[in-house]
Amino acid sequence: MTPHAYPHARTSLDWDYHDLRNRLHGPGLIQHGIRITTGRTGGHQPLHRLAVPFGDNRRAGFLALEDYAVHDALRLLADPVRFPHLTLRRREPPMPHPYVITWGAPLPTDPAEAACLLGYHRTGIKEYVAYAVPGGLAYASSNGGGEEVSASSGCSPDVGPD
Fold first, then answer.
1. Contact (CB, 8 A) for 113 and 149
2. Which residue from 32, 31, 35 is spatially nearest to 13, judged by alpha carbons?
3. Which of 118, 99, 103 is CA-nearest to residue 39?
């Protein structure tokens, strides 16, 4: 495993396990996650992330990745039960991880609404919103025509923000 770009010394995969275990309403989904190589570190070591499947309160997911990682990621996530409605989009403008794979429901650009669809509990939603860059989900929330998608279903009453 490789060092993560975040300011702490954990690996990206360790960060995903810790972060998702603390945010997901149903953390048992983590055990069904798939390790995906999404890019390379500055030292050219593989960078791995955890793709957590659809299920329980989790109705969506996404991963940003580099060009060379797209084929393997799509192959590993090709399970319509665990990763339904798998889509690949190119992020504009180009970024270090120029592609994003999404599954499940389309993600809205609003971080709180996105966190609901990602299956986070109330505290997890608040943490995600505090961490998210405003509009940072825009690359994952296009419906293919460039329009932003809003969360019509919202959070269930026992999961949603206060």
1. no
2. 35
3. 99
pLDDT tens digit sequence for 34-62: 999 888 877 778 888 999 999 989 999 99
What is the length of the chain? 162
Return the SS3 of 68.
Answer: helix
Which residue has 């997901």 as its token pair? 24
Cα(158)–Cα(162) distance, integer angstroms: 10
Residue 58: what residue type?
A: R
What is the DSSP code string of 113-161? HHHHHTTB-HHHHHHHHHHSPTTTTGGG-B-SSS-B---SS---TTTS-
Residues 6+ apart with CB under 8 A from 147: none
- Euclidean distance between CA atoms 140 and 148, whole angstroms: 9
Structure tokens at 44: 């050219």
DSSP H or E stretch at residue 22: helix 12-23
